[in-house]
Amino acid sequence: MIFWLVMLGCAEERIPDAIWDVEVTGLETTCIDSLEGYQEKFRYEAYFEGSKVQLDINGETFATGQRRGCIMDYTSATYLEDGEGGAIRWNIEGVAESQTDAGGCPDIPDGKDWVGTETLVVVDSDNEGIEAGCTYSMEVSGTFVSQ
Predict the structure, then answer these.
(1) Per 3-state DSSP, what percentage of the chain is helix, strand, and coil (rounded to 5)?
(2) In angstroms, rounded to a whole number, what is the distance separating the alpha carbons of residues 51 and 70?
(3) Which DSSP symbol is given to 90?
(4) Distance CA 121, CA 17 (A)
(5) CB burial of residue 82 (10 Å; 0-12, 13-18, 19+)
(6) 99-119 pLDDT, tens per residue?
(7) Are strands 88-98 and 71-76 parallel, antiparallel or unpaired?
(8) Are 116 and 95 in contact (CB under 8 A)?
């Protein structure tokens, strides 16, 4: 038993290949009447394997996808959200231009290292007030933290 505890304690922590602090801002939606000023900050931790990318938030996988030069396309898993009006299932599809401290992506504005959009898509809904197929469009921008 002590052997397994020691082995678990010695497990190497996986270190991200790149980290960005991003801010997500709601732009428009076809799901409800208002975005109510949605804005939230996250830390995106990226792990690269060739052209594949995994994005984590708070140590949990948020999305996976592909990167080609400065462009990253990614999709989250499908999440279940229970609400007063019934459950909805949704995922996020994102595309971003991103760079590290080395720069090299000419379409990214000065002072930013991550510029993109994310679209939350309701894939299924038991909530009469939210239709399957409706979307929330969000702008995502941020800065590189470390590599």
Answers:
(1) 5, 55, 40
(2) 11
(3) E
(4) 28
(5) exposed
(6) 998 889 999 999 999 999 999
(7) antiparallel
(8) yes
